[in-house]
């Protein structure tokens, strides 16, 4: 006869998801064979795991509440505990090998080799390199796999034997008595560092560690359109992992060097050209610096301070596209100072001829309004 899942966990049928999880974790601690020497503990643990598997899943629980075990079987479901795995395999399926409940109380055997740490460094590029993208050869300090022993920690040609301290398991267990019964704690073997194996003759280059610290070089590709402060991740270029474990990553923070000729506004560039008052009045052709070289720009007659022209496609590209922004060239009209007597006389004669028809009326915000319009 099928056992009622609610009775197995000791719960009411209206129990919340939090109550179900809390109750199962408590039972798991009590029934795991490492802390409970009752011969029936393993079977009861598997029953509790099966009940939790159903009641913790909203859809399975709905089917079970409506149709019982027959409804679950009709839907093709079968419990994980029927797959033939041991108690620790079932426990790991629910809590994961990294779960503190699994590792601290019961031990998880020798896990995967520890991965290496990440490395951070910085690189500075010019604004012009933002347009094209560039490559940099970076040097930094990192832990690398020892080339002499190829990372296994043993002097080449010498054997690697099973660790005597943990019988090759990579872990040692400590048993203690508590008010709740026997408590088993597991940790990495101090003799082999959790590897389960030790070199008979340690490598003379790395002292048996399999890794060695030193300078490392790596070529990093910096994409067009990157902005100052953004980071590039290079997978596997960080510190080497232990005994073949995954290497960490390299994170490169990119800084864009300031270019006094331009100010960046996203994908657009802003530059300022100084223009004499008479040239602004009469119109002129001026040379404008761009990231693609100098360009001749026609200044229309009557140009006012703050007027600007747009050089389409001479800005910066987007990080994920080829389209370039624009360059906005603003004109700073320079009023002459320290006039000679002749220059002053000419200016006064000109002033006498200037009337309202020669003055362009601005809106109330003037220059600031034009700047805002330029950038939407």
Which stretches are poorly predicted, pLDDT < 50 over at least 5 residues?
Answer: 83-89, 93-111
Shape: elongated
Radius of gyration: 37 Å
User: Beta-strand level of the residues, as a percent range?
Assistant: 25-35%
- Which sheet architecture does the biggest sheet show? 4 strands, mixed
> From N to C, what is the helix and strand string?
HHHHHHEHEEEEEEEEEEHEEEEHH
Which superfamily, in CATH terms, is the homologous superfamily of the largest domain? Heat shock protein DnaJ, cysteine-rich domain
Overall structural class, as computed from helix and strand content, comes to alpha+beta
CATH architecture of the largest domain: Ribbon
What is the CATH topology assignment of the largest domain? Chaperone, DNAj Protein, Chain A
In CATH, what is the class of the largest domain? Mainly Beta
Helix fraction bin:
25-40%
Count of the domains: 3
**If you average the pLDDT, what whole number results?**
80
User: What's the tally of helices?
Assistant: 10
- Strands of the widest sheet, in order across it, are 10-11-15-14
Find the count of extended strands (DSSP E, 2+ residues): 15
C-alpha end-to-end distance: 74 Å
Top keywords for this entry?
four-stranded mixed β-sheet; Chaperone, DNAj Protein, Chain A; 376 residues; 3 domains; alpha+beta; HSP40/DNAj peptide-binding domain; Helix Hairpins
